[in-house]
Design the sequence.
């Protein structure tokens, strides 16, 4: 998704782009390919609007106007009473700076891919799919990429948006720091009896966060983190037992639930590349950083990468610079390095802080949450930061073409 967004951004700035994708697009657009939905920061959605896909995606996007975050126990008769501390974020608190924009949008990944793919075709961007890179090298002022189709591509710059297991990153010798959490996320969609009223909920439980993320038509995307063993067991139990466990965490405040479609499971971990570029290769999105979905920032980091890299490359090309040089690519790395590293570290800290049931630590967490909730300026900054609207914003995140 980040790679397709970059292709559209570069095309809008007059650069010639070829997009290589390993998976056949028909498979990627199927409902069984990816059951996830992504929380899209409001500034990142501005980027899609500027690139011509926002209006299409808005039909499939659900506003998040409020977010409740709680620190809870696992359900059960012996569970102690929850502490009365929670975080509450509301878009109306920052409306003087954002207008009618929500805190973010929830969009199913398949709808994002479909809208981006259709715009790629409409823009006449060359799409080579299915195809994989079998070799790559640099030759003076150009990089060359050999595909398993027998074709060789030649360009001043190659961008890896391949995901966490980036082949090009490994071939370039860029070191990659990574570790796995003892958690997997079970993801499913539920239909609810009552409307969610555009409110998202995240409950921090000892085994991991449990998120209820609003979708259109009174549906919600459930992201249910458990230990690997428990998550695998949830994938194997019968429908009634799965429902019983689900309702124990979800509660009955939105009425009856119906699980719609398939369940999916994703192992969770962190990955961070030590460099964002090397030679004529730049890293983008999960190739450069992959984080826990605890705050829904993973794709947003990639979309912020897109906005910064597109602006750097388009402006360099207009000045007649070689867009594949260290001089140009370091501008991109400097723009994005701190945000990517700091967000990765903070998300890792959240996982370790909240995914345990230590009673003393839980009490300290609760008090900290309660105090945080009483400081409006701090809460507003967090909302704007999560909305990708703080710092030196690239033009695309302001809703402007480069």
Sequence:
């Amino acid at each position: 998704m980040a790679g397709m967004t970059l292709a559209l951004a570069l095309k809008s700035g007059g650069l010639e782009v070829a997009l290589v994708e390993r998976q056949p697009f028909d498979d990627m657009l199927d409902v069984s390919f990816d059951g996830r939905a992504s929380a899209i920061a409001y500034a990142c959605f501005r980027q899609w609007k500027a690139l011509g896909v926002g209006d299409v995606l808005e039909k499939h996007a659900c506003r998040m106007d409020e977010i409740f975050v709680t620190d809870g126990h696992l359900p059960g008769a012996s569970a102690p009473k929850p502490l009365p501390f929670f975080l509450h974020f509301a878009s109306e608190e920052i409306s003087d700076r954002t207008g009618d924009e929500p805190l973010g949008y929830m969009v199913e990944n398949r709808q994002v891919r479909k809208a981006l793919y259709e715009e790629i075709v409409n823009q006449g961007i060359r799409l080579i799919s299915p195809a994989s890179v079998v070799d790559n090298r640099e030759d003076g002022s150009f990089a060359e990429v050999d595909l398993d189709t027998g074709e060789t591509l030649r360009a001043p710059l190659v961008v890896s948006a391949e995901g966490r297991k980036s082949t090009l990153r490994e071939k370039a010798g860029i070191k990659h720091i990574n570790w796995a959490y003892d958690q997997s996320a079970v993801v499913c969609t539920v239909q609810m009896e009552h409307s969610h009223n555009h409110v998202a909920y995240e409950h921090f439980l000892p085994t991991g966060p449990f998120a209820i993320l609003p979708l259109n038509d009174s549906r919600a995307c459930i992201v249910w983190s458990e230990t690997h063993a428990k998550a695998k067991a949830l994938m194997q139990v019968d429908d009634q037992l799965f429902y019983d466990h689900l309702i124990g965490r979800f509660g009955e405040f939105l009425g009856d639930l119906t699980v719609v479609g398939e369940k999916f499971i994703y192992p969770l971990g962190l990955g961070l590349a030590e460099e964002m570029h090397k030679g004529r290769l730049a890293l983008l999105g999960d190739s450069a950083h992959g984080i826990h979905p605890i705050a829904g920032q993973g794709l947003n980091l990639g979309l912020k990468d897109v906005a910064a890299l597109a602006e750097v490359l388009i402006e360099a090309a207009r000045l007649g610079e070689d867009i594949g040089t260290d001089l140009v690519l370091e501008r991109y790395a400097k723009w994005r390095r701190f945000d990517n590293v700091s967000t990765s570290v903070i998300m890792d800290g959240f996982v370790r802080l909240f995914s345990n049931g230590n009673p003393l630590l839980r009490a300290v967490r609760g008090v900290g949450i309660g105090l945080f909730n009483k400081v409006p300026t701090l809460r507003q900054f967090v909302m704007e930061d999560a909305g990708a609207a703080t710092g030196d914003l690239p033009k695309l995140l302001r809703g402007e073409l480069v």
Observations:
- The chain has one domain: 2-394.
